[in-house]
Each structure stands twice: as C-alpha cells, then as structure tokens.
What we know:
Elements: H1 2-19, E1 36-41, E2 50-51, E3 54-55, H2 56-69, E4 76-81, H3 97-106, H4 116-128, E5 135-141, H5 153-164, E6 171-176, E7 185-192, E8 197-198, E9 202-211, E10 217-226, E11 229-238, E12 243-251, E13 256-263, E14 274-282, E15 285-291, H6 304-310, H7 312-316, E16 331-337, H8 343-346, E17 351-355, H9 362-373, E18 377-381, H10 388-395, E19 405-410, E20 449-453, E21 462-467, E22 473-480, E23 483-488, H11 505-517, E24 525-527, E25 532-536, E26 544-548, E27 554-558, E28 560-562, E29 565-570, E30 577-582, E31 588-594, H12 607-617, E32 620-622, H13 625-629
Parallel strand pairs: 1-4, 1-5, 5-6, 6-32, 8-14, 15-16, 15-17, 17-18, 18-23, 24-31
Antiparallel strand pairs: 2-3, 7-9, 9-12, 10-11, 10-13, 13-14, 19-20, 21-22, 22-23, 25-29, 26-27, 26-30, 28-29, 30-31
Helix pairs in contact: 2-3, 4-5, 6-11
Amino acid sequence: WLLLLLRICIPVFLALCMARPVHTGAAALWNDAKTSLVVVLDNSYSQDFQATGGTNFENARKQAAELVGGLQRGSDVSIVLMSGTNAPLYDSGVFNTKRVAEDLKTLEAGYGKAEVPSALDVAAVLTRNMSHAHREIIVISDFQRISWSSEEATLRQRAAERLAAQEMAPRLTLFHTGAEGRENVCVETVSFSPRVLGMNQTLQVRATLRNYGDRSHDSLKVVCRVDGKVAHTTQIPLEAGQKRQVLFTHQFDSAGSHVVGVSADADSLKADNTFRVSIPVWERVPVLVVDGDPSPESLESETDFLQIALQPYREAGEPQQPGEKKLSDLLEVRVIRTAGLNASAIGNARVVVLANVARLTPKQLVDVQSFVRDGGGLLIFPGDKVDTKWYNETLHAAGLLPAPLTELADLSREPEPFTRIRAQRFEHAPLSLFNDPRNGTPADAEITKWYRTLAQPDNPLVRMHALLESGDPFLLEKRFNEGRVFFCATTCDEAWNNLPGRPFFVPLTQRLCTYLASSLFPPRNLGVGSSAVAFFPPEKIGKTASMRDTQGKVTELSIESRGSKGLAEFAGTGRPGLYTMTGPDKKPIHFVVNTSRVESNLQQLEPKEREHVAQNLKADLVGSVEDYRA
C-alpha cells in the first residue's frame, strides 16, 4: 500500500513541479525572494511644499529609492507618476534596481493634480506583464484631501478590484509621507478685459488671491510685473481662509506680445505664488469690409458710412498741429467687392464684414467658414441685394447665420414709418458702454426696414443682445468653433435707417469689431501639458520657428500647412512659466502656462480617514520604510 501510494504521488509531484505554484504571502518569510514592484509616486505640486529636511516630494522620492534599493537581486521594478499623463518611467519592468534608485533622485515634482484611480490602472497593466509571481504595488502620497476625495472613492475601489481580479494579484500598500502645509497663499486667477487692446489704451488686470493657511496677513505684498519688470506694487490685508481681489491698470507704449504677472511670494510653495497672462497689444487691427453694393458716388456705396465710423481719424484727414498728441485709429479698414473675397484677400484680417452681399460662391463660403472657425470674427449687415433663400439654405446651414431670415419688415408707408431700438440695460461687452447716456443712446435711432429672424431660444450658441420695439432681434451673436458671428437686422448705410447720423453709430460699430477681433485663437494662456500653437501667413509654410522653454532650451519647429495658413506647434509645456516662440519675422509670441490651483489647499486626510481608505482598497497602510519592512 505504501509503494502504491508513492507511485501515485510521483505524477502528481511532477505536475506540481511543472506548474510551479507559489504562495504569494510567503515572500515575507524568505529573505531572498525576488519581487516585481511598481511604485506609484505622488508628484503633484502640493508635494513641493517645504517640510523638515526638504520638500515633501524630495522626502517621498528618497523613501521610494530606499524601497527600490532594498529589493533582492533579480527583482524588477517600474515607476508610475500620479500627476500628468500617468505614463510610467519605463515601458516594462527594469532589473537594474540601482539605476532606478538613481533615476528617482533626479525626478522633480509635477504641476498638476494627483490622479489616483488612473495611476492605479496604469500600475495594474505594468504588474500584469512583470516577471515574478510575488508582486507589489506601493502608493507613496501625502494623501492631500483634494486628491483623495470621497467623490473619487468609487473609482479608486473599482481600480483596486481590477487589481485583485488578476491571476497573480499584486499586494497593495498605501505609504503616507509628507508634512501637512499650514501656510499657503496663492494667486488664484488673473483676468483682464477680453476686448482688443491697442497702444496707450488702459488695461485693467484683476487678480484674485486666496489664503489657505491658518495665519492672517495684515499687509500682504502683491506685485504686478509687466514683461518681467515691476510695474505696480500694493499691500492688502488677507485673513486666514479669505479671498480678495486686487485691481491694477496699465498702458502699453508698444505693440506686440506682452506678459503680465501677479505674484504674492508669501510661502514656500512656489508653484501657485505667481499667475501670468499673455496679452497681445495691437498697433492696428485689420478689418476686411466686403461691399455688396458699391457706387462711384460719394457716400453712395453700401460701406462708405461704415468705413468712416471704423477709422474716423484717417477719414477726417486733418493735418497734425505742432506739439499736438497724434491721434490714430486702432482699426485698419480695407474695402473690397464681393468678387474679390477669398482666403488670400482675408489674409491677416481679424474681422470680415459682409455688407449687403447677395451671396457667396461655394469656395468663398469655405474660406469664410475656415476663417471664423480659426477664431476670426464675422459681422453681417443685410440690404436690398440679399438673396434670402441663399442666406437661409446655405449660409445658415453652414453655421454662419445666427438665425434664419423670415421676412423683410417695411414701415415706410405706415403712419409711423419707423421702429426704434428698445431702451434697456445692456449686459454684453460691446453694448455695455451705452448704459452711460454720454456715449450715445441707441433708442434714438429710427429704423424703417429690417429683417425679421426666426428666434431660437433653446440654442445655447446663439445670444440676443438688443431688441427692436417691434419685438424683433436687432443684434444676434453666434459662436462658431473658435470664432464669433454678429448679425444686425438692418443696413449699415442710410437706406433703411438713420443709424449713421446718430452719435452712437461710431462707438457701436467699433465696439462690435474690436469684440469680434478679441477671440484670440490659438490661445496663448495654457494649462500644463497643452500644446502651444501659432498661425503664420501661407508664405511662411516650409520655414522654421523656434520655441524657448522655461529652462532656456530652444527647440526648432517646422511651419506646416493647415488650410490656407501656416502652423507651428510645440507640445513640451510640462512646466509652468513663460514660453517664447519666434517666427521667421523674428517677432516673439509669448505663451504662458499656469498650474491649476486645485491643489493649493494643502489639507491632508486625517489618520482615521487614511485607514478607512486603506480598508476600502483592501490595502496595507504604512508611514515609513521601517513600517513597510515590518
């Protein structure tokens, strides 16, 4: 019987040898166990808080290097960063643990929020393809409350369940590190007027500061720098937990790309102490006006009055007196006929005006669509030449007409032969100046003919900014991708109204054009990791631009074709700060990258809350390398 039992055991024993079963929990009993380890390292910018013995991140990477350095020979390891793209440092497990420990020492804190669930999913993929049966995932974090919020508890738990469901499930350990910051003042936002800014015009900069710390500041110094130089300084009281705004004004004496930064250097967390914005200042804003009813007679063309309103100093042509301050127009108008409209004619224009244009050819429509899609502004005035059917079936279908035209209203033969613009308080930027009667009163205008439009109150892309007393819209606005379209219900000459003779006509038309021109695209104020993109004229395609990053490194960029424009793109905006692109014309374009302020509140989870998180994830919780080894 014993011999029979022995013979039965032989094939079973051979099968077990070939299957190589492993009891994963036994690794702690074997000093020479080889391990597959993934370290999930919190590199969010809250980790840059200065604690005892260095920043929280410096202490975290030191502990990670100590863990990696303690692995047995033949173990493999990988590193996943919580902030950013969650991309691992290595494509697969690395057996040279000394090299990994050295790489950890060179890492720097990131500039975004810690994304815990997605980092755990990346770690799960890595462990699935690693070499050893005994597998560990160690999450090293300061457990900042905003990154380990209860709102994401379900996502974290699902990620942990996916880990546990693996054939050889890794052991999960949460490693708390880093002191909690009790002092942090951040410049939360910096905003400025969205309208186009010309030289010597006043810019208002509004900065919002928030005190997340426990200490109040009686006189917090706030500095506004323009192009790196101190321009304005003020002091404000800022109590613990309080938010306040500071207003600065500035005038630029030169056109081009400028950078305004507001800083309050009140604590050791530098990532949120300064907020910068890139602001273009224009010497001239090019406007292309398409005249659909030209005439050789003075003031008989459709756009004669509009041209005078948009550039009154140039049209007046008065000689400059000695010693007199020179006055100039911000808008630079170029008038063409409908047949001359194309991508080349649009060129570098910021706004295109269609004045009584009957219709466009399919190619012209595509060119105008492309222009508005990329951030241009389109202003449409109707007239007696307009092909209503084409406007409704083609222009509206193309997304460039805010609402379909229904009928032409005509009061010229009525006892009261006109309607007026309804008197109201205007909230929209181009019209808000008329809340002050000294700037003119739109309600004084008399309008005899206008196009009624089919209102679409449920369309979030269309806004109604002014009404006629008849109840019909006078001004409609529509977003179209990155650009905007305005439709005025009546003409820009005196054929259907007396608008050109009213005092408000000049500021109204100028405000509409500068507002439409203010939709700067591609954007120059970016978040961490967003691509910096600049457009160039088509003749620059094939040439090169260069980008200088925050560290002074210069990268050459090729200008490639995109539609009728040239395009240069730079994707390496991983650090906050100033990036300067220089095109073939040697003019700088400034891009500013700011960190999200979501991690400025440095409050961490309490010990019991961390224990609760560990229980939900079925993970161990430690606070030091010694705890982990124990």
